[in-house]
Amino acid sequence: MPASSMEELVALAKRRGFVFQASEIYGGLQGVYDYGPLGVELKNNLKAAWWRSMVHERDDVEGLDSAILTNPKVLRHSGHEETFSDPLVDCRECKSRWRSDHLNGRCPRCGSADLTPPRPFNLMFKTGIGPVDDGASFAYLRPETAQSIFTNFKNILDATSRRPPFGVAQIGKAFRNEITPRNFVFRVREFEQMELEFFVPPGTDQEWLERWVEERLRWWDAQGVPRERLELLRVPDGERAHYSKATVDLMYPFPHGLEELEGIANRTDFDLGSHTKNQREMAVTAAVSSNDESNARLAVRDDNGWTVPYVIEPSAGVDRGFLAVLNEAYSVERLENGTERTVLRLRAHLAPVKAAVLPLKRNHDGIMARARALKAQLAALGIGRVLFENTGNIGKGYRRHDEVGTPFCVTVDFQTLEDETVTVRDRDTMRQERLNAAALAAYVQERIA
Ligand code: GAP
Fold it and tell me: Which residue from 66, 86, 177, 193 has its CB within 8 A of the most atoms of ligand 1, so it is best to mutate?
């Protein structure tokens, strides 16, 4: 059973150090969050799982890590300056501002129906570049990681000799000045994306789109978000982004409602065309002047001349993925003795702490030394974070680790000193078994991968 409300997840996230409000001691900053000691581990594990399946396990994808600060010309040619906006309305009564497509005719704060007509509000953040703040020297904080994959297309082609079909993957921050950030880390102003731009020969694009939808469903399933929990939304005409010929959204039942977790779009040759010299007709805007143009030809040469590949783009939000994974894993169980336990049934590869080593007695030198040595041995496996925890209360330790999803707790006791065995307790079954310490590394490693 997933969490019954967002409040439950928010409370756990704060209490156990997954997510904090950013700048909290100064009253916070709306739509911005910090990931705490356990949150950063879970988030890194999710990103690593994506990178592994997208780049390391494939033979047709390269990686990229590009800058966040972006030359405005990139986002002019991409169409974002002109079209990347949400409809904004003002309440004339209480002066609050809202996204008009999130309202039903009334101000959510004061209930007034006296609202201004909607007008477009561009979502991109600007920042000054250099020491002179003259308004002319500015950069955008990228609103999607995708554009720098397009602007680096020729560099990557030259460096790798790739030919379509092939892709470029990137994980990184994106920024959007959302009018109404809400629902915890679901809609925020600073977030992370995991994006693949997969370049394909024109004519094969729709087939690749469907292939990527399947592949992404399979991947989410492996992260503990079952495919039967995801609904496919084929986004209708008039509701897609300006660059898209077809988009399939993977919709997940978040605690606040069914919403987009990931979008898979057919971006056609729109972006590569728009960034190519003398291809101005591809850009959405007539306002792009010729001296703004790039000096590049973002195309592939083959026997038939130059071809601009089409692009299929699976684009997932890390923060939304984090929320979905947490929600799926969360469960409150009633035990036989009538008590309750909260347990995060995270897939082991995503768990923030892989194993905790607990000495039965904290003042006993022999037990402490053996437990420390075991912790060091497990940590050296490179499986992720392993904790040595010398609170001395094993029962409480188990409960605390259930709540943050630690798959294994290893207890070192007096018997360990006699026969070199330890107790391993499994998070999901709560079963404890006595293992030879020499077999522990292999036991844990086998179950974490
Ligand atoms: N490059 C394509 C693109 O950016 P998008 O549908 O606007 O498409 C892709 O964003 C994904 O990024 C979304 O499916 C969502 O997971 C995540 N995302 C977008 N805006 C977000 C926000 N304000 N807060 C958190 N995640 C967001």
Answer: 193
Torsional sign, CA 430, 435, 440, 442: negative
pLDDT, tens only, 377-406 = 999 999 999 999 988 899 999 999 999 999
Taking residues 263-269, what's their average pLDDT? 98
Give the pLDDT of residue 86: 94
Determine the distance separating the centroid of ligand 1 and the alpha carbon of 6, expressed in angstroms. Answer: 20
Most ligand 1 atoms within 8 A of CB, residue of 173, 271, 320 to mutate = 320
Domains in the chain: boundaries = 6-68+142-269+309-325, 351-448
For residue 247, give the ligand 1 atom closest to its CA: 6
Condensed to tens digits (0 to 9), the pLDDT of residues 62-91 reads: 999 999 999 999 999 999 999 999 999 999
> E strand or H helix at 423, and its extent?
strand 421-426
Q: Which residues does ligand 1 sit against, CB inside 6 Å?
A: 144, 146, 176, 178, 187-188, 191, 193, 195, 260-263, 313, 315-317, 319-320
> 6-68+142-269+309-325 has which CATH code?
3.30.930.10
Q: Around Cβ 438, how many Cβ atoms within 10 Å?
A: 10
**351-448 CATH fold:** Rossmann fold (3.40.50)
- pLDDT over 60 at 47, yes or no: yes
**Do strands 246-254 and 257-268 pair parallel, antiparallel, or not at all (unpaired)?**
antiparallel
pLDDT over 50 at 159, yes or no: yes
Q: Which stretch of 16-20, 61-65, 295-299, 435-439 has the lowest confidence by average pLDDT?
A: 295-299
Protein residue closest via CA to atom 15 of ligand 1: 317
* Residue 114 to residues 93, 106, 108, 111, 232, Cα–Cα distance (Å): 7, 8, 12, 9, 37
